[in-house]
């Protein structure tokens, strides 16, 4: 058979015919075809980190799970962290404070973000369809003072602004592990879960957090960590929460539970 003409020649010779065919095939012509493509754009999701490492920052497995499920869901992701000093630095090999060290939350979070991260002060609702807060003690130490002050905690000013702005805009907020305390403190009457309300022989070692959430004026909903009992969805406030490492269980259960949270957040965006 004769060789095919180069692609440029094919486009040149067949361009008008292709355009005509598209106009006939797509109701409303090419303009509607392009507008339809715009309507199908990916959800833009902000992920807020609190450092790097479970005891003094973001729980790395949770952050990774959030990012994997957002990628699988086709989301466009941007990461942020407050540009503030950590409350303290924990030697993760010993589980004890490293007294001589000090670290910055934004700088440490950049490890997880592979350098692609911005100050939380730059996060706006106009540029995003949803926001997600992974857990880790950084949420209770760097994004708030919950680890020290419990129900009397204060929330970082930028974190509070972001939560209130997304809530006011009717855009979904996802939180996992200990981070639901942020919504409980800032969003009056929100419904959240951190899992169970009793330790149950050590399976739920942080069950006391549920009591603090109630004292903050939020409603606590008992939930499992696995995908069989997926994330709690507060449809009124568009807040989606899941227990994650609040439970002593297999990593794949935590991964799947976070996936349920992410899936519901993306669903609430309507994208």
Automatic annotation (TrEMBL):
Q: Keyword annotations for this protein?
A: Mitochondrion, Transit peptide
Domain of life here? Answer: Eukaryota
Q: Which GO terms describe its cellular component?
A: mitochondrion
User: Chief subcellular site?
Assistant: mitochondrion
Question: What are the subcellular locations of this protein?
Answer: Mitochondrion
InterPro entries xrefs: Class_I_gatase-like
Name of the protein in its database record: GAL3A protein
Q: Which organism is it from?
A: Platysteira castanea
Q: What is the lineage of its organism?
A: Eukaryota, Metazoa, Chordata, Craniata, Vertebrata
């Amino acid at each position: 058979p004769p060789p095919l003409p180069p692609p440029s020649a094919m486009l040149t010779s067949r361009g008008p015919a292709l355009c005509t065919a598209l106009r006939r095939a797509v109701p409303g012509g090419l303009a509607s075809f392009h507008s339809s493509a715009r309507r199908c754009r990916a959800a833009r999701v902000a992920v807020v980190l609190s450092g790097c490492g479970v005891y003094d920052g973001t729980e790395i497995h949770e952050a990774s799970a959030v990012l994997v499920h957002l990628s699988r869901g086709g989301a466009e992701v941007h990461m942020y962290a407050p540009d503030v000093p950590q409350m303290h630095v924990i030697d993760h090999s010993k589980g004890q404070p490293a007294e001589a060290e000090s670290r910055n939350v934004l700088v440490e979070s950049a490890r997880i973000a592979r350098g692609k991260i911005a100050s939380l002060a730059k996060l706006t609702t106009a540029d995003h369809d949803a926001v997600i807060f992974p857990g880790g003690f950084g949420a209770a130490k760097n994004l708030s003072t919950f680890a020290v002050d419990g129900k009397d905690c204060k929330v970082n000013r930028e974190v509070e602004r972001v939560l209130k702005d997304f809530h006011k805009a009717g855009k979904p907020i996802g939180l996992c592990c200990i981070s639901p305390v942020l919504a409980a403190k800032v969003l009056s009457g929100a419904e959240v879960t951190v899992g169970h309300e009793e330790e149950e022989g050590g399976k739920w070692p942080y069950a006391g957090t549920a009591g603090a959430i109630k004292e903050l004026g939020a409603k606590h909903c008992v939930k499992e960590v696995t995908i069989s009992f997926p994330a709690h969805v507060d449809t009124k406030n568009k807040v989606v929460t899941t227990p994650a490492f609040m439970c002593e269980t297999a990593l794949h259960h935590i991964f799947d539970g976070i996936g349920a949270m992410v899936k519901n957040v993306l669903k609430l965006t309507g994208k």
